[in-house]
Each structure stands twice: as C-alpha cells, then as structure tokens.
Design goal:
The protein has 12 helices and 14 strands. The chain is an alpha/beta fold and 353 residues long. The chain folds into 2 domains: 8-66, DNA polymerase, domain 1 (Orthogonal Bundle); 71-351, Aldolase class I (TIM Barrel, Alpha-Beta Barrel). Strand 9 (157-162), helix 5 (172-182) and strand 10 (195-199) form a beta-alpha-beta unit. The two termini are 37 Å apart. It binds S-adenosyl-L-homocysteine. S-adenosyl-L-homocysteine (SAH) binds next to strand 10 and strand 12. S-adenosyl-L-homocysteine (SAH) is lined by residues 119, 121, 123-124, 163, 167, 198-200, 221, 263, 265, 298, 300-301, 303, 340.
Length: 353
C-alpha cells in the first residue's frame, strides 16, 4: 500500500511523461492526452470526475497519483485599483503569495517560485525570513489555476510574471517544467511571449536558460550600477559581479534575440542620485550599443526593518534620459493591500502564535 505522501503529483507531469507512466500501468497512449485535458482544461480535482475513464482505471490512478490543490487562505482586493492579492496555503502548510494585476493591455498574474528565498536582497520582505523550500511545477501551476477559478470571465489571466517570492533561477528544473506545462497546447496553452522571468542575476543559469530558447522575457533585477552599491544591496553581486552579469545578458540577447528588461527599484539616497544615473549610463551604453536596453523603474516598496524609503522614479527617469537611456516608470498597483510580494506572508508568519 502506498501512503498518500508517496503518491506522484500528477499535475506536474507533461503529456509525454504521463504517457510513459501510464504505459507502465498498461494503459494505451491516448489516455495520457485525455487525462492531461481533464487536469489542465477541465481542472477536475478528483479522478472520479474523469467520466470517460473506467471506474477501475480511476481507482488505479487514485492509488498511484494525487491531485493536490492549493487553497486560498486570504484574499485582499484593492480599493484603489483592480489588484487582488492572494495568500495560499500549500499542502504542507507553507504559505506563498500571488497577485492579479489589471493593466490596460490585460490581466497579469505574479506568482511565487519558492517558499522564502536565499538571495538576501536588503530591500526585500522575504529575505529576513530565509529559505524553506522550492515550489514544485504543480504548485506554480496551482497558483494560476486557483486564480483562474477566482477570476471573472472578462478578467482572464493573459500574462504571467515570475516576480513573487523566490528566485526562479535557483529552482531551475521546476521552473522549466512549469513553463512547459503552462504553455502546452493541450493544457492552459499560455504563450510564453506573455511571460516574464525575473532574476537577481545567477549568471550560469542565465546561460542555461538562453539554451532553452523560450520566447519569454528575461527581467534582470539590477538596482545599482556599481559593484560597490549592488553588492551592498544584493549579496548575489559578490558572486556574480556586474561585468559578468551584463556579459551574460548580452549572450542571452545574442542567443535568443529577445531584449532584456532591467528592473530598478528607486531607493531614496541609495541609488537615485545623478551619480547613480551616470554610472548606469556608463555601464549599459557600451554593452548594449544600438539595442536600447529597457529599464523599468519602480519606487522601492518600503519594508519595515529595512530602513529604505522610496525615491522618485520620475526624477530618476529624467536623469536617465540625460544619459540616453530609455526607462519606463512602472505603475504601482495595490498599494493599500500590500501587493508587493512577500509582505502578506511575512505579516502572517509574524502574527502566528
Ligand atoms: N528573485 C527574483 C524575482 C523575485 S523578486 C528577482 O530578484 O528578480 C521580484 C522583483 O521585486 C525583483 O526585481 C526584486 O528586486 C523586486 N523587489 C523586491 N523587494 C522589493 C521592494 N521592497 N520594493 C520594490 N521592488 C522589490
């Protein structure tokens, strides 16, 4: 007898992987496609709902696999805009967050890739809580599916950003499996053109991702243009300093033809000075001559205990213009509901007895 914890999480298997495990059970190949569709299109939560499968086969599936769901434990809807923040509880009790944001071009879901994070960025709400574990591909999908089930027809999720809790490139295999699952034509069929993966800059993994040749957008969290300041804000920079990071970005662009977006959280007095803008110009111009790198500015979300406060993204944008750099100011959404990822989980962990 298998105990429930030994069952395979069936939502995390691609059709070919399903085909191979089902063929070991003596099932014909077409069953894999049927079952994949039940799971990823019809979104059944129990094998007994797979009505085109025999009772006996449903029972066999049930004895080997589980369909884990993640539960919404808290939902906060912004009064300022249409942003909705979700706090989910995973099957082992851990908490993660996701956000649904409505932009003029569509609805974007921001999801988490790990429970906690190892990267230790000084401005981030998740860093002080440390790392607990990687999320499985099924748990990343689960965040989207729970949001799908909770979304009105006219607010269907059309884009995804991996910008929630965690460092996606520190959970590489599961993130790649998630990308293949969410974009599979027999499943959710989301175009990876509408997906952004954000990284703090793990250089070897950027190179590995380039080899996959996905049409996704790579976002690199830059936040400073000198090694001194970046290492202070983001410890990962001590391992992969700016020269190495920007060279990897250039290789990524050459290999995939996809332009990279740089994220820059504007922090008062830290990285918003004319000297910081000049440093950014001096760094990026020679590396990306003619490619016009895209920079996304966002005022840092002040997290208690970090001591940082928001600088003016507009003022910094002007400074960058003088440097010949193109930057956009990202709209901050859901300020009233702690929509910046990590803050809701952090408050819940702090509040728990
Ligand atoms: N680990 C990945 C993705 C998760 S963080 C990364 O580092 O990119 C998603 C984005 O939010 C990153 O750009 C991160 O630097 C930024 N971020 C984290 N804390 C923030 C804060 N308090 N204010 C503004 N942006 C923040």
């Amino acid at each position: 007898m298998q105990t429930p914890t030994e069952k395979t999480e069936i939502l995390g298997l691609l059709p070919d992987q399903l085909k191979s495990v089902l063929s070991d059970m003596g099932a014909p190949a077409f069953r894999a496609k049927q079952i994949f569709r039940w799971l990823h299109v019809r979104r059944v939560t129990d094998f007994s709902e797979m009505t085109d499968q025999s009772k006996q086969f449903q029972n066999e599936l049930d004895s080997r696999f589980c369909i884990k769901r993640i539960n919404i434990v808290q939902k906060l809807a912004s009064h300022m805009d249409d942003t909705v923040k979700y706090l989910y509880r995973l099957s082992d009790g851990n908490l993660v967050e996701a956000v649904r944001m409505v932009y003029h071009h569509g609805v974007t879901a921001c999801i988490s890739t790990q429970v906690g994070c190892k990267m230790g960025c000084k401005f981030c709400a998740s860093a002080p809580l440390g790392f607990i574990r990687n999320l499985t591909a099924a748990e990343m999908l689960g965040q989207i599916y729970a949001m799908d089930a909770d979304s009105p027809e006219d607010a269907r999720i059309s884009g995804i950003v991996l910008m929630g809790i965690g460092e996606p490139l520190d959970n590489y295999d599961n993130v790649i499996q998630f990308l293949k699952l969410i974009s599979h034509p027999d499943g959710r069929n989301m175009s990876l053109r509408h997906l952004s993966l954000s990284t703090c800059g793990i250089v070897p993994m950027i190179d590995r991702l380039a080899e996959e040749n996905f049409p996704l957008t790579l976002s690199v969290s830059l936040h400073a243009a000198t090694d001194e300041k970046r290492s202070e804000l983001m410890p990962v920079n001590r391992k992969y300093p700016l020269d190495q990071l920007l060279a990897a970005c250039q290789r990524y662009f050459r290999k995939t033809g996809r332009r990279i977006t740089f994220e820059y959280a504007v922090i008062a007095g830290e990285n918003d000075t004319p000297a910081a803008a000049a440093a950014l110009g001096a760094r990026l111009r020679p590396v990306f001559s003619g490619q016009r790198p895209h920079i996304n500015l966002i005022p840092v979300n002040p997290v208690s205990g970090t001591g940082f406060s928001a600088g003016s993204a507009r003022a910094f944008q002007k400074l960058l213009e003088q440097e010949g750099l193109n930057a956009t100011v990202r709209r901050t959404l859901g300020d009233d509901i702690k929509a910046a990822c990590g803050q809701l989980r952090r408050d819940n962990i702090k509040d728990s007895p």
